Amino acid sequence: MVGYAVGLGNVWRFPYLTYQNGGGAFLIPYTLMLALAGLPLFFMECSLGQFASLGPISIWRILPLFQGVGVTMVIISTFVAIYYNVIIAYALYYLFASFQKVLPWSDCFSWADEFCSKTRLVNDCSAVLDGQIIHANYSFIASNNLTCLNDTINYKPVQFPSEQYWNKVALQRSSGLDETGNIVWYLALCLLLSWMIVGAALFKGIKSSGKVVYFTALFPYVILLILLVRGATLEGALDGIEYYIGKQSNITKLMEAEVWKDAATQIFYSLSVAWGGLVALSSYNKFHNNCYSDAIFVCVTNCLTSVFAGFAIFSVLGHMAFVLKRPVSEVVDSGFDLAFVAYPEALSKLPVSPLWSFLFFFMLLLLGLDSQFATIETLTTTIQDIYPKMMKKLRIPITLGVCVLLFFLGLICVTQAGIYWVNLIDHFCAGWGILFAAVLEIIGIVYIYGGNRFIEDIEMMIGKKSCFFWMWWRMCWFFITPVLLVAILVWSLVTFSAPTYGSVLYPTWGTAVGWCMIIFCVIWIPIVAVVKILKAEGNLFQRIASCCRPTANWGPYLECHRGERYSHVVTPKKEKEHEIPTVSGFTYFRE
Q1: Tens of pLDDT along 137-157?
Q2: Cα separation of 590 and 395, whole Å?
Q3: What span, in angstroms and rounded, lies between the C-alpha atoms of 445 and 443?
Q4: What is the number of other CB atoms lying within 10 angstroms of the CB of residue 31?
Q5: What is the DSSP letter of 577?
Q6: Which of the four, 123, 167, 258, 468, has the lowest number of CB atoms within 10 Å?
Q7: Sequence-distant (≥ 6) Cβ neighbours of residue 254 within 8 angstroms
């Protein structure tokens, strides 16, 4: 689960948000949102999956009326899996490009235009000529051996070599979504390779991926430590760290609502709650596994990783600002621009730059693969729950078939307009749709199924706890967390803006496609609810009431774990117990 929760956002989004929202002061709302929203949801989903040993759709035997929520989670995870592997393909491309004596983005080579420059170029300024202050082009100033006056210099709009390399060479980026262009063949090959890696790791399910995750989840921490140690020894590193979390911290930022909203959304998306993956992964746990301590450990590890990554990122960016004689604020960015423009530019200025570049992109690759493994496992677990016999016989071809299908669906994202499609899917599908699913999830389990009843289910797994132990979780599940989620959802809808990529606006049809994608994701919630009501018996009230009760086969998967509370559970046939090795040792596997 650490590999699933810790992903690219910890490296390329959190450090920038911290810098932007008051530095060290941002850790206050961030920690509060972890305790009030992130951790309660994480613990709930881990407990839910472990209790019934079911995936994100079948788990809604607990509340059939809301089974569409599980369908929404799986569809959104499918969309995300398509573009997430494209980002992994970008990392692979840069990883291979690092195997050169001179990094190809270290200077303005043949692919660059006149706006490419490693340093700032003066356009015009004011100077003193014959006792009078004049304002002229820099060519005139230089030709007359004049000196620009402070605070009068205007610079030309230049771009770093890494920025032009990203747009002109790596992406071959077109002018907009309207101009699809050709498939960029080397990105398509990298995308194919990334899907081959995912397929090879998952072809035997959790048995094979569990072994791979030992490496992909742990080695990024080694690389982060190496990058931090190297960055800390560079000139200007302290300036970068002070901008990140030091003297530049601004406690007054906490008075701004936007800061709290950023903290809540970062926690929510960073922990990967409401995507279905946590339910799918925890469904492979032993019934008596301590999911409470797992939730605490994973959430704290995730947040500490984000803070730790920020030091590694900003120490190197501080050095870059020192070399360029610019303030750190002018070289900092987030998302794609941090991972593929700002940080590569900073690394290109280090001695033995290809080595540091290789380590950085290898780390991005591993972070991305971890999350991707879990996302695809979510899809295959869903198929297994629906067609258990078929999945048992045909797991390998079905897993590989899923990877092949998603590879072909992702080809649109490696055209010359591919980055616009990646951004569009991320903007819509990874946004408020997940928040909507999370709100329904917690309301359904706490207020319809029953929060106290759910707590009794958890105690069947981890043992009886005191009322003081549950006091905090009851406060969060019954009131604080739902209110926070609704507030974030409403805020996201009110402040929703049309998608853009940099300065490029999306055409109207592009925005319409985005809305169609998210509507396709969430429309299954009312559709499945209506279907369930229609299939039920009795009058309308009786039908709705029956759909709000757990199904006859809801409960622990294995009969030996049901006890008196679930002795009534109807099982189609006698299940056979057997175990398979996983990351944490052994766990029960659902046939």
Answers
A1: 888 888 888 888 888 888 888
A2: 13
A3: 6
A4: 14
A5: -
A6: 468
A7: 22, 25, 28, 29, 260
Q: Specify burial of residue 436 (Cβ count, 10 A radius: 0-12, 13-18, 19+).
A: buried
Q: Find, among 493, 486, 518, the residue nearest to 268 by Cα.
A: 486
Nearest to 162, CA basis, from 317, 306, 322, 7: 317
Q: Name the nearest CA neighbour of 477 among 168, 42, 3, 27.
A: 42
Q: How many residues does the chain have?
A: 591
d(C-alpha 361, C-alpha 351), whole Å? 17
Distance between CA atoms of residues 518 and 459, nearest Å: 37
Nearest of 94, 100, 106 to residue 171 by alpha carbon: 94
The DSSP annotation for 129-187 comes to ETTEEEEEEHHHHHHTT--PPTT--EE---B-HHHHIIIIIIS---SSTT----B-HHH
| Of 10, 341, 342, 29, the residue nearest 165 (C-alpha) | 341
Q: Phi, psi (5° rounding) for residue 66?
A: -100, 15
Q: Give residue-wise pLDDT tens across range 78-119.
A: 999 999 999 999 999 999 999 999 999 999 999 999 889 888
Distance from C-alpha of 281 to C-alpha of 10, rounded to nearest angstrom: 20
- Give the model confidence (pLDDT) of 170-210 as tens digits: 999 999 999 999 999 999 999 999 999 999 988 876 666 66
Cα–Cα dist 317/327, whole Å: 10
Q: Which residues contact 519 (CB under 8 A, 6 or more apart)?
A: none
Write down the pTM of the prediction: 0.90
260 with 484: CB under 8 angstroms? no
DSSP state string for 347-409: HTTSTTHHHHHHHHHHHHHHHHHHHHHHHHHHHHHHHHHHSHHHHHHHHHHHHHHHHHHHHHH
What integer pLDDT is reported at residue 583 of this predicted model?
35
Which tokens hold the place of 349? 């200025």
Any residues with CB less than 8 A from the CB of 425 and at least 6 apart, and which?
79, 80, 82, 83, 413, 514, 517
